[in-house]
Amino acid sequence: MTRKKREINTSLLDSVTADMLGGDDIDFFQDDTLRVERILLELVRPDPLQPRRVLPDRIYQAFHGNRMTPTQALRDLIQTAQLAARQQGRPFNNVLDLLGNPDDDGEQDLPPLSPEEQLVHDLVNLAITIRDDGQVNPTTVVDVSEGVTRQFRIETGERRYWATWLLRDFISGYESDGMIPCIVIPHESASAFRQAKENTARSGLSSIAMARQVALLLLQIHGYPMPDGAVGYDFYRQALDLDLRGKREFTTLVLSSLGGLHKRQLSRYKSLLKLCDEALELADRHNLDESHLRLILHLEPADQVEVLRQCIAFNLTRKQLHDLLEKNHEEDDKDVEKLPKHVIQLTRIMKNGNMPDPSTIARALVNQEGNTNIARARLQTYARFYKKQRIISKIR
């Protein structure tokens, strides 16, 4: 039995390809300290900093804030998917119903699956594969045990983790031993770069997930502390002020970990973090392209959300979105053109927050008028006008 178990472990190790391990890290995985274990599912936890999110943000925050168990998180996700499905006229009670009937052509005219339905569908599909064929690729986990308390944090393979919970708690007829096969990595050997290589090597990484990935690597190389629990977008926005200039020794490693990304592309993905939280969540859920999101960065938060909702509802291409924004801009300009040119210039200055200080305005008036008394009279006129407008606005 021992020999057979050793052969199984060896085959699992051999099945881990160079792409999964990130190329240059292959030597690391040949280390004698590497081991494959079947670990109790309750001892494994997803990485809250993993840029490739599985759970929607609301459930993510509750789960990593220890306000939900894995089963409760999945139940909440399934209920959200059920609500979306009912609204589209395709209700389901059993998660297996999401896989559909291949002989049924009646659902062809229904709208596409919502993001939550698609997520549950993919997890159920993966769960059935694990049930029928076993988990071919073990989950990669970091040993974060402290003292006698054993604990493991997922580095890659979070979908397999959730699919296993789904299989155990929501698909009847499956008898589980409560264990999950894992490649165990010592805590001191954990690598955000290896995680990034795995994320970018696989398909399906959204542009917002890539923005989080870029931010996480920049924060890592600049020595920012890494939290142990749930994080919001403000955590990643810290990277907006960071770049590779002061850390040139990490440039090649960072760009290669991001799938050979160019510096210009890195900056574009990072700039997406300027979007408001609601816009980021919408873009992430619906997997909107970076080229679409780049067009709305200059908009106010409320406008960002409204434009994204239209983009999602009508499945706009980049050109259609560009034309829509240009049309709105032209209509705004037509309204503005009715006003005197100097008023338009003044309001633009005020909107940009570039108003000069009073002493600068005074010196400019003196230079233009060539007379101190005339300049002072104009300033007094502006002051009286401003005071009058404030009084009127208070009365209204």
From TrEMBL:
It comes from the Bacteria. GO terms for biological process: chromosome segregation. Coiled coil: none annotated. The lineage of its organism: Bacteria, Bacillati, Chloroflexota, Candidatus Thermofontia, Phototrophicales. InterPro entries: Chromosome_partition/occlusion. GO terms for cellular component: chromosome. This is ParB/Sulfiredoxin domain-containing protein.
